[in-house]
Amino acid sequence: MSAMIIDGKAFAETVREWVAEQVAALPNHGQPGLAVVLVGEDPASQVYVRSKSKMTAEVGMKSIEHKLAQNTSEVDLLKLIDALNKNDTIHGILVQLPLPGHLNEDLVINAISPAKDVDGFHISNVGLLGTGQKSKVPCTPLGCLMMLREHLGSLSGLNAVVIGRSNIVGKPMAQLLLKDNCTVTIAHSKTKNIKEVVRGADIVVAAVGRPEMVTGDWIKPGATVIDVGINRVDAPEKGESKTRLVGDCHFDSCAEVAGAITPVPGGVGPMTIACLLVNTLNAFCDRNGLPRPVDLAV
Ligand code: GUN
Q1: Strands 243-246 and 231-234
Q2: Per-residue pLDDT for 79 more than 80?
Q3: Number of neighbouring beta carbons within 10 Å of residue 13
Q4: What is the average per-residue pLDDT within 220-232?
Q5: Is the CB–ligand 1 distance for residue 118 below 6 Å?
Q6: Of 45, 72, 264, 292, whose CB count within 10 A is highest?
C-alpha cells in the first residue's frame, strides 16, 4: 500500500471540538437546536439518527429526535415539519432519507423551511448552490470537500470524476468541485468506458452504493480517492453470518495506486455528521444576525 490514509474520524473530531467551542462562546447563552425525524425502522437509518442526535448533544446543542411509525401519513409528517418550522428553539431540521415508499420525499423535503434545511436538500438551497450563491450545503459532499481541501490545498484546475448522480451526494459534490475550479465529470451507470473516464481523474469521489466497484486499475497513479460508499457485505472469513463494511472502492487495490484515500469506515461517514453540526451552528447564527463562525466559501 502506498497511499496516504485520509483520517476522516480524526478530522471530524477536530471539527466537532471546534463546533463545541463556538457553541460555548455564543452570546447570551444562545443554544442551537437540531430536530432529527426518522420515519420507520430501517436499521441503517436508526444507527445514523442515533449518532446524529448523540453528537449534537455532545457539542452542547439542543437535540430532539422524532421517531414516527412506518405507516405515518404524509399529512401527519407535514404537520410535524410545520410545527418544527415554527419552533424558535429549533434551528435545523433533518428528515432522515430514504422515507417509506408511500411518502413523497420531494414534498416532505420542500416543506422544511429553507433557513432550517441543514441537509441542503430544499429546492431553493439546491438552486442557490447551482447558481453559485450562498446556500445550505449537503453534509456529505461538504465533508468530502473539506477533506480534499485539507489534503490537496487548492483544487483549481484538477480533473475530478464523481461516480454517482444522486441528489444527496453526486450532484451537489459536482457543484462544489466546479465552484473550486475543478474540471468535473459525473460518471454513472450508463457511462461508456467508465474505467478510462475514472483513470483520467486527479480526484475520484465514489458515491454509487456498489460494494468495491472501483478497483486499483481504475485509478490514476497519485490520485486522491474519496470513498462515500458504506456497504454491508457478508464476511464468511469472520464466521457464520458475519458481515463487514466496505466502500464503493476496493480499498487494498486502490490504495496501491492512489496518492491518498479515505477508509471505510472512518473516512467520509464521521465528516457527514461533523458538517451537520457546522450547518446547524451556521443556521443558528443566520437566524440571530450573528456572523457565521466559519465561512467555508460554499
Ligand atoms: N440518508 C443518507 N444520507 C443522508 C443525509 O445526509 N441526510 C438525510 N436526511 N438522509 C440521508
Answers
A1: antiparallel
A2: yes
A3: 13
A4: 98
A5: no
A6: 264
Are residues 61 and 31 in contact, defined by beta-carbon separation less than 8 angstroms? yes
User: Residue 294 has what pLDDT?
Assistant: 78
**Which pLDDT tens digit goes with each residue over 14-23?**
999 999 999 9
Q: What is the pLDDT of residue 244?
A: 95
CA 37 to ligand 1 centroid distance, Å? 11
Cα(68)–Cα(38) distance, integer angstroms: 6
Selection from 56, 6, 67 nearest residue 260 by Cα:
6
pTM given for the model: 0.97
Centre of ligand 1 from the C-alpha of residue 220, in Å: 30
Alpha carbon 214 to chain centroid distance?
20
Apex CA 78: angle with CA 76 and CA 83, to 5°?
95
As a whole number of angstroms, the distance between CA 259 and CA 145 comes to 17
Active site residues: 52, 96, 119
Distance in Å, CA 168 to ligand 1 centroid: 7
Query: Which of 50, 94, 277 maximizes ligand 1 atoms within 8 Å of its Cβ, making it the mutation to test the pocket?
Result: 94
Q: Could you tell me which of 213, 224, 137 has the C-alpha nearest to residue 182?
A: 224
- How far apart, in whole angstroms, are the C-alpha atoms of residue 4 and residue 2? 7
- In angstroms, what is the span from residue 92 Cα to ligand 1's centroid? 14
Cα 79 from Cα 268, distance rounded (Å): 33
pLDDT of residue 239 exceeding 80: yes
**What is the pLDDT, as a whole number, of residue 29?**
76
- Residue whose CA is at the smallest distance from ligand 1 atom 1: 97
Does residue 297 carry a pLDDT above 90? no
For ligand 1, say whether the CB of 245 is within 6 Å of any of its atoms: no
C-alpha cell at 58: 455532545
- Residues 247-270 pLDDT 10s: 999 999 999 999 999 999 999 999
Residue 94 Cβ < 6 Å to ligand 1: yes
Q: Please say whether the beta carbons of 278 and 269 come within 8 A.
A: no
